């Protein structure tokens, strides 16, 4: 849109945005002049977010994200805090986000504390409590007694032996436990060979006894006036139930976990935040509107879908658009069996057969009517 046409173009904000302006004006107790200024700023922002009719925003967004992504390093490690929790960034992380992987390679959380609990001592206490502890962390020795078909466990502190014996008995129903002076004996009834004893030993060693499952490391660091806990591992639901934790700001990089705990809108925001953060780590400046479009596309059905063949690209209505992406023969054969037809409403399929794309001026058909000679 030209500057001249913009000057003659009066923007009418949607009702929802107008109501939001009214609410903000009341909360901030703005006078008439301040309210008008706020309205003008919102209108300007709204206009900047708009696009021309027929503009191929999907193609522009794809190009705007993909071209800078070609400059990204294959794998970059970022160390959060001076102690150094290693987080993967770079192209693999971007692929994790847009492929909507069920679990990130390195799940991490950033835990914020409420103002009244914001101190080094409280942060260190919470970090110690949430850190997952397994039997292997308190072991001194573990061995297999083949003659008695038993596993003998010696702890660093035998005062916890009784409690630990009960945990083992609860989790492994077909065993008997007894506490001796120096160790715990786990007896297995029936005929068992060495392999089975070894498997049972591994299960016992990996048993969870304290802390929050999934949190394998927790580091306290200071950021400005705040004390923050960074973790390796994620368990958002359990963490947000802790009284001292600020549930409004605590986040995880696991998009699916965010969706299950906080809902699909929160997952959309997580996709956007994680993608922008990953690209900014590499010094790439991509307009957030392109990433917002991708986030919307991945979540608009109410579930998180990947961009690839099993997600957004694989569910396009056009047969040729699906076939052009991946697994060409599969899509064509399925379409022929189902008696599907292609309506050629998109860009890809029209380019493939050499037709004018339904975008820009190609969106419209011009019909002219000429007057005949002598006709008024």
Largest sheet entry = 4 strands, antiparallel
Strand order of the largest sheet: 10-11-3-12
Broad CATH class of the largest domain: Mainly Alpha
Name the beta content range. 15-25%
Count of strand segments: 12
- Give the C-alpha Rg: 30 Å
Q: Return the domain count.
A: 4
Low-confidence stretches: 4-8
* Structural class estimated from helices and strands: alpha+beta
User: In one word, what is the shape?
Assistant: flat
Helices and strands, in N-to-C order?
HHHHEEHEHEEEHEEHEEEHEHHHHHH
CATH topology of the largest domain: PTS-regulatory domain, PRD
The total of helices stands at 15
Residues in helix, %: 40-55%
CATH architecture of the largest domain: Orthogonal Bundle
Overall mean confidence score, pLDDT: 85
What is the CA-CA span between the terminal residues? 37 Å
């Amino acid at each position: 849109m030209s500057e001249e046409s913009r000057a003659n173009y009066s923007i009418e904000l949607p009702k929802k945005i107008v109501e939001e302006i009214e609410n903000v004006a009341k909360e901030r107790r703005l006078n008439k002049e301040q309210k008008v200024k706020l309205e003008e700023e919102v209108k300007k922002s709204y206009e900047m977010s708009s696009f021309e009719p027929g503009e191929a925003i999907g193609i522009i967004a794809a190009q705007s994200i993909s071209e800078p992504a070609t400059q990204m390093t294959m794998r970059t490690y970022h160390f959060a805090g001076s102690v150094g929790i290693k987080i993967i960034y770079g192209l693999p992380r971007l692929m994790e986000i847009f492929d909507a992987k069920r679990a990130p390679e390195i799940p991490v959380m950033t835990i914020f504390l409420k103002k009244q609990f914001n101190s080094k001592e409280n942060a260190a206490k919470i970090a110690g409590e949430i850190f997952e502890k397994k039997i292997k962390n308190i072991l001194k020795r573990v061995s297999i007694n083949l003659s008695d078909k038993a596993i003998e466990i010696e702890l660093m502190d035998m005062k916890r032996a009784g409690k630990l014996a009960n945990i083992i008995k609860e989790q492994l129903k077909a065993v008997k436990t007894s506490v001796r002076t120096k160790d715990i004996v786990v007896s297995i009834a029936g005929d068992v060979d060495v392999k089975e004893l070894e498997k049972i030993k591994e299960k016992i060693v990996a048993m969870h006894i304290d802390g929050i499952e999934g949190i394998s490391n927790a580091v306290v660091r200071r950021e400005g006036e705040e004390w923050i806990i960074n973790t390796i591992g994620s368990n958002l639901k359990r963490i947000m139930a802790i009284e001292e934790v600020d549930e409004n700001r605590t986040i995880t990089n696991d998009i699916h976990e965010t969706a299950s705990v906080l809902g699909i809108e929160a997952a959309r925001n997580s996709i956007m935040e994680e993608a922008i953060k990953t690209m900014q780590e590499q010094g790439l400046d991509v307009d957030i509107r392109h990433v917002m479009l991708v986030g919307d596309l991945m979540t608009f059905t109410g579930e998180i879908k990947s961009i690839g063949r099993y997600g957004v690209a694989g569910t396009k209505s056009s047969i040729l658009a699906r076939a052009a992406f991946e697994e060409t023969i599969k899509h064509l054969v399925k379409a022929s069996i189902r008696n599907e037809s292609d309506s050629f409403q998109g860009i890809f399929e029209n380019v493939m057969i050499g037709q004018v794309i339904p975008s820009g001026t190609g969106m419209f058909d011009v019909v002219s009517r000429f007057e005949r000679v002598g006709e008024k």
